[in-house]
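Dear H.,

Thanks for agreeing to be a second pair of eyes. The structure we're designing against is below in token form, covering all 107 positions.
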């Protein structure tokens, strides 16, 4: 199954769109394989995403907003968690992936 990024293609929020693009572009730029899952196109996928986020990681009110990141069935985190891992250069660990050889390491 691998890394999956849950997004909403028809989000009216510019902030959400920007966060989704940031995650996707980073993964593409670093040649990290992933699947983009559009929750606006599949009620089943949307419900799976909501159910699969651990209760302690859900917002106090409302539903979790995209992007939400998983590796298989393991929840990695939301955009803020992703951003923190990017800033600390620990994205592979955040995604549950094995470190690469030095020549292919993240910039």
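And this is the sequence the design step returned. I haven't edited it by hand at all.
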């Amino acid at each position: 199954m691998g890394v999956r990024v849950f997004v909403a293609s028809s989000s009216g929020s510019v902030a959400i769109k920007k966060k989704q693009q940031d995650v996707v572009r980073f993964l593409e730029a670093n040649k990290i394989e992933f699947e983009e899952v559009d929750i606006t196109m599949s009620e089943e996928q949307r419900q799976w995403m909501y159910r699969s986020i651990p209760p302690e990681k859900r917002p106090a009110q409302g539903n979790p907003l995209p992007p939400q990141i998983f590796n298989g069935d393991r929840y990695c985190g939301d955009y803020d968690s992703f951003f923190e891992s990017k800033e600390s250069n620990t994205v592979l660990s955040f995604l549950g992936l094995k470190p690469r050889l030095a020549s292919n390491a993240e910039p």
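Two observations from my side: Strands lie at 3-7, 34-38, 68-71, 74-78. Residues 5 and 36 are 5 Å apart (CA to CA).

Warmly,
E.
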